[in-house]
Amino acid sequence: MGLRGDCELSFDLPRAGVVSLDVFDLAGRRLRTLERGGWRPAGAYRSVWDGRGDDGLRLRSGVYFVRLSAGPEKRVERVVYLR
User: What is the number of structural domains in the chain?
Assistant: First the structure.
């Protein structure tokens, strides 16, 4: 997936649980936390990433990874960010 500007990240939870959603660089450094370990009931959700790190600075164009942790399950997706 490539993006310019904001990126809408959608995910479904088949059962309730604690959810975290983070953006990482290729070296595995966490750059942005979008969801911080909050309890969510089962259902469909979306979160928006604006291409910035936790420090508020816009990240460079490149490949990033978005990791969703929902209870014991983890899913990682690759994102190509273009400025």
Answer: 1
